């Protein structure tokens, strides 16, 4: 299927590795020019080289940290310089540290709220006037299955990610008439470095091996396996596409059927 987005321009947050990297590659394979960002210049440069060697959409990058107070200006300036404008914003961030509700201090909450919620909303607001003027845009927010089913041991994530869900749904109703969609994409157990670290932490807490923890986790998923980054990224690319123009205000799960809610 031709997704109808060749020549579009996308900023993909937190795309040096993991899900963000996968989404940038998937979009570029559809002919989208992508701007990657993250904290590791070497990883970003390698990702861009991989994408540009494919010969479809072009890739460039900017070193930027979502914990930095100046990151919104940094990214907005890079979009103007490297892309000349924007059509697709993929909101994404690394997950916060694991822990319980009692582990959350006011300082920790504020720090992660700024990086995971405030700056993503502020970025969208920065780009919405252009999307409205061209009457086309996509705002895709990658979050966590904890939005609909809180994950034990991830109190910070379970607290902050749902704020983005409320915002995304509200935004969708406000901008639909301009040809702009706003959706959320929730990963289940996708085999990334983040999932590996969570499995390792679970193994340490339980006294089991990492392999045993993974096998137990996979048995709890109806698909009986972890998902791949490529599967997740393909779903993201569709939600950013012309073909998904009538999909907005939605929360889409890519989790192998793991969430038990309707």
Automatic annotation (TrEMBL):
InterPro entries: NAD(P)-bd_dom_sf, SDR, SDR_fam
Alphabetical list of Gene3D superfamilies matching this protein: NAD(P)-binding Rossmann-like Domain
SUPFAM superfamilies, per database record: NAD(P)-binding Rossmann-fold domains
Similarity comment text for this entry: Belongs to the short-chain dehydrogenases/reductases (SDR) family.
Protein name, per record: 3-oxoacyl-[acyl-carrier protein] reductase
Species name: Mycoplana dimorpha
